[in-house]
């Protein structure tokens, strides 16, 4: 095993805290209740995930499509969404880092090529990069790959193969870990990688596919890598 590919949201960073920050920012700008805002944001997010699962969206415009859909839901110009995502990024704190992430990355550094393979929704990859840099995670990552930069989103094979092609590594030499079964686990398997699905309901590390594992948290990745 030479390369470890990491999903970002709900693998390294807490998506719920980011969404709460986004909802607060939107509510302040639009002067509407946060509860109403949250319902609309979550519903739109689910719709976008369905679009990507069916691969019916335009990978060239993955970010723009999600921002425009959210703007349409609130009946505002997309500039409002961009403002809100900027405010949300500025307002999050170090609590956005999930437990065990820094310790796991420290263990991986120097032993593997470490990449991120991340989708974008509502905010650009530049903001995700900013958060990773701000809270000291970027220093452990060899190179970051995001859908608005590589013009492919998970579960598309192209999204998983982009890091491998860059480092000239075969799928059999790489493992991807993430919290979404369809996007991260099945997507990585279909691209020929080993895959690790973070399922918070998991009771133990379990092999559920010839090349696939189910774990409770990112810390379990170290146990899996020790098998190679």
Automatic annotation (TrEMBL):
GO MF term (any one): hydrolase activity
InterPro entries: HAD-like_sf (IPR036412), HAD-SF_hydro_IA (IPR006439), HAD_sf (IPR023214), S-2-haloacid_dehalogenase (IPR051540)
Highest taxon of the lineage: Archaea
Key words, A-Z: Hydrolase
Family: Belongs to the HAD-like hydrolase superfamily.
Protein name (database record): HAD family hydrolase
Organism phylogeny: Archaea, Methanobacteriati, Methanobacteriota, Thermococci, Thermococcales
């Amino acid at each position: 095993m030479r390369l470890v590919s990491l999903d970002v949201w709900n693998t390294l960073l807490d998506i719920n805290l980011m969404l709460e920050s986004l909802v607060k920012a939107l509510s302040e700008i639009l002067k509407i209740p946060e509860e109403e805002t949250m319902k609309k944001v979550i519903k739109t997010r689910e719709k976008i995930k369905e679009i990507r699962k069916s691969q019916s969206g335009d990978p060239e415009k993955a970010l723009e499509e999600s921002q425009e859909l959210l703007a349409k839901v609130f009946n505002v110009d997309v500039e409002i969404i961009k403002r809100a995502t900027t405010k949300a990024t500025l307002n999050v704190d170090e609590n956005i880092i999930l437990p065990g992430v820094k310790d796991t990355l420290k263990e991986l550094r120097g032993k593997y090529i470490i990449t991120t393979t991340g989708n974008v929704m509502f905010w650009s990859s530049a903001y995700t990069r900013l958060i990773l840099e701000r809270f000291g995670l970027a220093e452990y990552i060899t190179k970051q790959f995001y859908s608005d930069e590589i013009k492919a989103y998970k579960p598309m094979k192209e999204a998983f193969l982009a890091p491998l092609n860059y480092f000239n590594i075969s799928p059999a030499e790489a493992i991807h870990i993430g919290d979404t079964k369809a996007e991260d686990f099945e997507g990585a398997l279909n691209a020929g990688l080993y895959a690790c699905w973070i399922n918070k309901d998991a009771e133990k590390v379990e092999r559920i596919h010839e090349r696939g594992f189910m774990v409770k948290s990112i810390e379990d990745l170290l146990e899996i890598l020790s098998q190679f």
